[in-house]
């Protein structure tokens, strides 16, 4: 049975819609916009939006719902995680399917599609590649990647850290960049593994693994170096893949990437609300476990700089990762504490609040906000080819 819904007399914030009117929805799809109180469907359900904003649902292109790393499992599932997203105004998430050893990319995708069946909102996936190309038949790799694109999976994710499970070295990165289908978006977690490993090992040897030392184990220079290296390597290959630097946490990394845009503009930069709202002083508090994440929070002066840079980012995403507080508190040791923080329910409010402060307007209209923020549904869909 066809379900029809009219959202009546709302104030639209998208530039391509009229400022006031009725939104017509049929079977969960927007089918039109008409003048307020136009008689269209006499039997439709009506929601009165007088005095309220009507904006498109957000797309969060970086989430980890029902994550199982093989070591830790998040506390949420696709039922709970997508309800939380909907409450926060997010109507599409792009999560991850992980190709574990001895698993094909198609098997990885089908596994996650099955898990996501209880979802209450739209979803898609990026494919995490863990098997280096020298352990894979190149023709088969390209065949499987082409099949993923045909199914709407137009992006992959790689890691420059987390040895040995996810880490991909430079030779393998170059091979993957060359073998991927043209125009593929390549998300990369950028931290120099040697720097992180050396810093962590030094702290372990000195018995300094308290949560207060978490940020020291993953210095911002590790992100800075790896991000620059990814853009440089991608620029070397004869393929039109597009790097996408996830969760940029340091203002100097962003400055460097902006400088690299004088050489190539074929890449995107993402940040997350935790990096432009929270700072590393939280690691000195009794609630430090709540804020263990990779990359870690940065000093307050760097957070302030990142706030001013926010309008120039391409994407704001959450890196949503919902571990239970008991998991977080189980060890007062940063090497044993699962990393991640929730964000799906609060990303819109946090980003809007910061924009309001930056522009020093009271109040900042949603129209102004929507026209200038990287937190938009349309931009994320275009960037990721969805």
Written overview of the protein:
The chain has 386 residues and is an alpha/beta fold. It folds into two domains: 4-54, Urease, subunit C, domain 1; 58-383, Metal-dependent hydrolases (TIM Barrel, Alpha-Beta Barrel), CATH 3.20.20. The protein is 35% helix and 18% strand. The protein has helices spanning 78-87, 105-115, 138-150, 170-179, 193-205, 214-217, 220-236, 251-260, 273-277, 300-309, 325-329, 347-359, 366-372, 377-383, and strands spanning 4-12, 20-26, 29-34, 45-48, 53-54, 58-60, 90-99, 122-129, 155-159, 185-189, 242-245, 268-271, 315-316. It has an eight-stranded parallel β-sheet, with helices on both faces. Strands 1, 2, 3, 4 and 5 form a five-stranded mixed β-sheet that branches. α4 (170-179) packs across α7 (220-236) and α7 (220-236) packs parallel to α8. The longest helix has 17 residues, at 220-236. The chain is globular, with a radius of gyration of 22 Å. The two termini are 28 Å apart. The relative contact order is 0.12.
Mean pLDDT: 91
CATH architecture of the largest domain: Alpha-Beta Barrel
List the strand order in the largest sheet.
6-7-8-9-10-11-12-13
Biggest beta sheet summary: 8 strands, parallel
How many β-strand stretches? Answer: 13
Terminal residue distance: 28 Å
Structure class? alpha/beta
Percent of residues in beta strands: 15-25%
> For this structure, what is the CATH homologous superfamily of the largest domain?
Metal-dependent hydrolases
* Count of helix runs: 14
What's the gyration radius in Å? 22 Å
**CATH fold descriptor of the largest domain:** TIM Barrel
Backbone shape: globular
| Low-confidence region ranges | none
Provide the helix percentage: 25-40%
How many discrete domains? 2
The CATH first-level class of the largest domain comes to Alpha Beta
Could you spell the SSE succession in H and E letters? Answer: EEEEEEHEHEHEHEHHHEHEHHEHHHH
């Amino acid at each position: 049975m066809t379900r029809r819904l009219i959202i009546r007399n709302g104030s639209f914030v998208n530039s391509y819609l009229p400022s006031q009117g009725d939104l017509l929805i049929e079977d969960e799809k927007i089918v039109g916009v008409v003048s307020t109180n136009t008689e269209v469907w006499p039997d439709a359900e009506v929601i009165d939006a007088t005095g309220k904003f009507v904006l498109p649902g957000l797309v969060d292109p970086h989430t980890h719902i029902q994550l199982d790393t093989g070591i830790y499992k998040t506390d949420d599932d696709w039922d709970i995680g997508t309800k939380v997203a909907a409450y926060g105004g997010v109507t599409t998430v792009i999560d991850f399917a992980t190709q574990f050893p001895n698993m094909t990319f198609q098997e990885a995708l089908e596994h996650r599609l099955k898990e996501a069946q209880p979802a209450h909102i739209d979803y898609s996936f990026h494919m995490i590649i863990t098997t280096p190309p020298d352990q894979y038949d190149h023709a088969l790799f390209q065949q499987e990647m082409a099949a993923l694109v045909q199914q709407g999976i137009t992006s992959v994710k790689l890691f420059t850290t987390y040895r040995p499970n996810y880490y991909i070295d430079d030779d393998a990165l170059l091979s993957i960049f060359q073998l991927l289908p043209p125009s593929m978006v390549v998300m990369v977690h950028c931290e120099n593994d040697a720097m992180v490993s050396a810093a962590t090992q030094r702290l372990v040897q000195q018995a300094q693994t308290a949560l207060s030392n978490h940020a020291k184990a993953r210095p911002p220079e590790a992100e800075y170096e790896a991000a620059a290296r990814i853009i440089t390597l991608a620029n070397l290959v004869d393929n039109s893949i597009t790097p996408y630097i996830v969760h940029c946490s340091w203002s100097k990394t962003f400055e460097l990437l902006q400088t690299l845009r004088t050489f190539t503009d074929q890449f995107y930069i993402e940040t997350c609300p935790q990096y432009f709202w929270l700072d590393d002083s939280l690691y000195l508090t009794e609630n430090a476990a709540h804020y263990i994440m990779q990359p870690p929070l940065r000093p307050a002066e760097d957070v302030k700089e990142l706030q001013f840079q926010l309008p120039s980012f391409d994407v704001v995403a959450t890196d949503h990762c919902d571990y239970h507080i008991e998991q977080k508190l189980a060890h007062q040791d940063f090497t044993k504490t699962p990393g991640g923080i929730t964000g799906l329910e609060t990303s819109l409010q946090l980003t809007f609040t910061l924009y309001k402060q930056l522009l020093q307007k009271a109040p900042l209209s949603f129209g102004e906000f929507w026209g200038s923020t990287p937190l938009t549904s349309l931009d994320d869909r275009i960037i990721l080819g969805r």
